[in-house]
Amino acid sequence: MLARGSVESPGPVAPPGALSCVTGLKSHFDLPPSAPEGQRRAAFAQWVTDPNNMLAWRSIVNRVWHYHFGVGLVDSPNDFGHMGSLPSNPELLDWLAVDFRDHGGSFKRLHKLIVMSAAYRHSSAGNRENEAKDADNRFLWRANRQRLDAESLRDSLLAISGKLDLTMGGPSVEQFFFKDDHSPVYDYSRYDPDAPGNYRRSVYRFLVRSVPDPLMERFDCPDVSMITAKRTTTITAIQALALMNNPFVLKQVEHLTDRITDVASAYRLILQREPSDKELQILTPYLAREGPQNLCRLLINTNEFLFVD
Amino acid sequence: MPPSDQHQRVPVRRLSRRDFLWTYGGGLGGIALSTMLAGAEPAGLHHPAKAKRVVQLFMSGAASQCDTFDYKPQLIARNGQKFDPGGKVELFQSSPGAVMASPWEWRQRGQCGKWVSELVPHLATCVDDIAFIHSMVSKSNVHGPATFMQNTGFILPGYPALGAWMSYGLGSLNKDLPTFVVLPDSRGFAPNGAGNWSNGFLPAAHQGTLIRASGANPIYDLFPPKSATFINAKSEKDSLAVLNQLNDQHLATRKDDSRLEARIATYELAARLQVSAPEVMDIRKESEATKRLYGIDDPVTQDFGTNCLVARRMLERGVRFVQVWSGADNGFPRRNWDSHEDLAKDHANMAASMDKPAAALIKDLKSRGMLDDTIVHWTTEFGRMPCSQASKGRDHNPFAFTTFFAGGGFKGGISYGASDEWSYRAADKPTYCYDMHATMLYLLGIDHQRLTYRHNGIDRRITDVYGEVIKEVLA
Asked: Is the pLDDT of residue B123 over 70?
């Protein structure tokens, strides 16, 4: 221990251990103060993943739930303590936690359970009666309409342009121009939007902590130097400009154009449905006036493309 | 919470908690959007404001206090002698050299009789409008962390800059331009790059918008690239009309979701930005006298002068916070204030480009009656050592540096706090960025302790757990 964090006031040696407030587990690891670092880490990892450490199991299933629904059963995913929120459905949280634990911590099983549930398959349509009782939808009487997050948006654009590279794993891809200098240069605008590395899924992007990708940042991709349990989701004029004019986006529009033949095929590819008669009436003459590239650019700018019902 | 009552200003029909939180988190699409749509001033400040907006001139690389505004006869008297302020002197990248007097002469200026060096002769003519703080201290002597500290209150990345906090707390004053604008040095960015104007954990809309005053595409993605030949003015008009039609149909069955409507409005805002951003940067209609005042006619002052003039035009049009950078990164040849090797040469270059436009900005704002409610803030990340580095340069000094304020409710012609006789350590009233930020927010009508945002279980403030409003410098 260093009193008040000062290297000049050393206190007693703190032996390896964990939180004593987590019940049912030993908070002291029975390791001598001289135990090597590897042993200390292993002891901590065992504490975290102990079958009786319900904090860890609840916390991870809640996080997965949060990613699927946009809000967790506990809506403060990084905080299950006094400053955090209470669960909306405590029994469900516990059931999921135990099921996850007892099936070897299988994420695949957990995802499948969640996305196949009735709760997940609700439509996002509103309903006055339920609205009056639970406007926040904490009890999931409808789906939460979600704006695509930065990664999903980018991957969706690549998917419909036919360019998405689904290669798994490997080192991350540097999607920027780099020059080593006294202050190193990371320039996203000087990177070829059609460079093969740009087609990889967003999860494989090389994240530069000091210089985030402006396109991703614009769509609320958080600062990677901060732990962010929940993203904020904004809607801004700068986002509108990006979806209309960003060179990467427009490059995908070009590729997309090669894959469509008419309004109906554009709808099937971009919005995953057939156009209505009214939409055909509006867009057929528009296509004739402005051409297929403008049609594709228009459809990726619709609210329907950016929001998942 | 931001200081205003959002319920009063957000035009949504159904205010569920979700929508309420979402909408006020939305910035340009949320609070600011609603303010923009309403064209209204935010109500419900913590106390009456003296200032409405801020222009910050940031001297990247660390501008010397003891060669500009922090006069120490001791350095002249002891020039060339051993530097012995008592205790061990720890420097950033050198061992302490001899005491080094400033290469520039000092004179008393203005009615207040402020001692100012010949390095900054134009700012010297503004001292009666300026409140100097000579006892600034930084927690880091490394450029990156210290620059973060002056901007965000933290030496680590990931925290919102003052402009972002102002955008979050006060919203916008205008319908067509961003709330927080950054004008970089044309030679490049300061250490940390865009991190210096980050929204941190605040919603993305509060991020500083980078504007390159001399670029064809001054805002990122403002216009399509030239290669996109299928887009022209006519097709753009057609497309926006059809887009609105489709979005309206989509909205018809989803009336309960205010976000969809907000997004439709962002396309109108984007179109307005395409008109207003080039307009605000077009300085051709400014008078010749004004252009001369800012030094637009001189290659030495043209870059910083143009940025300062554009800053004034933005402030006039209701931008809340404009940050203008003097200096880029720490590379060679020197292109910022980081004069380790040759202070007389490198500080002279930087000051020559900065001094006249900075003074012009203060005078111009004053003559237009805008200085009363505009804070001009001149600052840097830390100071420089009173001893020499390898005989001609100065190393980093986090223990004492100078920042100054003009206008916006600050008192003119005064100096607050003091460094020791060497200009080595803050001796009287040591002041941190926390106090600086708290004081600026105070004049903007905000209690810094109540401008908070909950992130990872902590109600974050720009002032962390510190900050005192410096009453002595208030008019």
From this structure: yes
